[in-house]
Amino acid sequence: MVDGTARSGCAALASRDEALQRLRTVADAVLYEGYLLYPYRRSSPKNRVRWQFGVLTPREWAERDGAVAPGVSGSVDSWYQQTECLLRASGDARLRVTVRYLQLQRKQVERSTGDGGHRPVEELQVGADVHLTFDEAVPREAEIDVPLARLLQGAHRTTVGSPGGAGTERLTGGAGRVVRRRDPVHAVTTVRAERLGDDGDDGTALYRLRVRTENTGSMPDATVPRAQALRHALMATHTLIGGDGVEFRSLIDPPEADERYARECRNVHTFPVLGGEPGRGDVVLSAPIILPDHPQVAPESPGDLHDAAEIDEILSLRTLLLTDEEKREARATDQRAADILDRVESMPPEMFARLHGAIRSLEPVTGATANSSTPHGFAAPATDPSGTAPTDPTATAVDPNAPGPTPPATALRGPAPWWQEGGDEGLSPTTDSALVDGVPVAAGSAVRLRPAGRGADAQDMFLAGRTARVAAVFHDVDGSLHLAVTLDDDPAAELNAWYGRYLYFRPHELEPLTTAAHEGAPHGRP
What we know:
Blueprint: H1 4-31, E1 55-56, H2 59-62, E2 77-78, E3 80-112, E4 118-121, E5 123-126, E6 129-132, E7 134-147, H3 148-153, E8 156-159, E9 165-170, E10 176-182, E11 187-195, E12 205-215, H4 226-229, E13 235-249, H5 259-264, E14 271-274, E15 284-287, H6 312-320, H7 324-333, H8 335-345, H9 349-355, E16 434-436, E17 439-441, E18 446-449, H10 458-463, E19 467-475, E20 481-487, H11 493-499, E21 503-505, E22 510-513, H12 515-520
Parallel strand pairs: 1-2
Antiparallel strand pairs: 3-4, 3-7, 3-10, 3-12, 3-13, 5-6, 8-11, 9-10, 11-12, 13-15, 14-15, 16-17, 18-19, 18-22, 19-20, 20-21
Helix pairs in contact: 7-8
């Protein structure tokens, strides 16, 4: 016989486990984001530069050109990844952290030399089958189960790397073999917690949790190509966080009482969002790509196509249009490509019909579920990279001087969503202004250009220090802000303005100039 308290506890555990399992479908899409893109062939240019998100290389290689600029997410090679999130928890709570990533596996095809030896080749045909040398990847997971009380006493450090290894597959008739090799990956994850407030009426308190994963491997020669560094890297690295007796808080839309603490969270090369059902905080997914709270895979999607914002119908139809030769190469490239081809070619008509479109609601959807009906439900939340809540949607001027990159504000400020008529009401690019170093800047304002790149963009190098005039202030549909400018020393500036051909900068990339300073400064010089 089970009493009511025990039944309630079992139900809560089952709910968390179910939420974590549903979230894994999204996490798997993150894990294989960009693994192999249409047309799924080795010869395709887009499949020659792979592993773009969540790549953690040895520190010597990542910082070969200087320290890596911290950012919330995106295609950057770093040596560490840091997640900070908020949770309310009881004194006997336990945290369960899962670090997931891909380990590179080199698939090398070797031809038999006839004397018992083998010679590496890029391609080998055996009968009707073709075998291609290609880089695969093996999914890895490391589980960390630790009481919250233990984390309050000090950092908990766990090894999450993977050993190297090799395996050999003999080909038919002794024509050759396929050798798969993995170099060891050395990494650790450190988990910390700090208490932020007093106990609430329910006996819980607010805590900040930090999960930091570092590549601790060594690479004495930092000049090696990226392909070689990837052999020692964690790729598509992301973190799942759950637990018993815990409830996580959204950093995108935190409760008012927790807003200050949410703003203080620092997430580097990743960003945590709530998983599971809307309105609950059972689990967290911290991913190297921007997601909304409560992301989900569209129920119509028949399977992953390795592009987490994919349009399933279009990609499936395009895949069917590949020639027999192209399909043959795709199947020889990677087993996952062969699986996609098999699934698409065997897809029944009624499943294709489901991919043509679905209406979730005839009314605008707001809040955490606004983007959950898109394929895989991935979209950028209206949040500062540090965890700041959305800014006031009625404000015209945006402060670009907050810590970190300029925070997205909200989508457009009109009474309707941006995709409906009236969504841009209240916006006026030629009269709106933006705060730049505390100075309102609008159309006609004089500015100096200070591109915020790392020095690798030639266009930024040519434009740095030149003076310009602001032509308009534009609000993007994702909530970010751009100022359109024309160069003072551009002979075609008037013509470009007439055509609407501008250069675009974020507010923190501009320096406001007084009229006198602007008129007295040599044009085109810092």
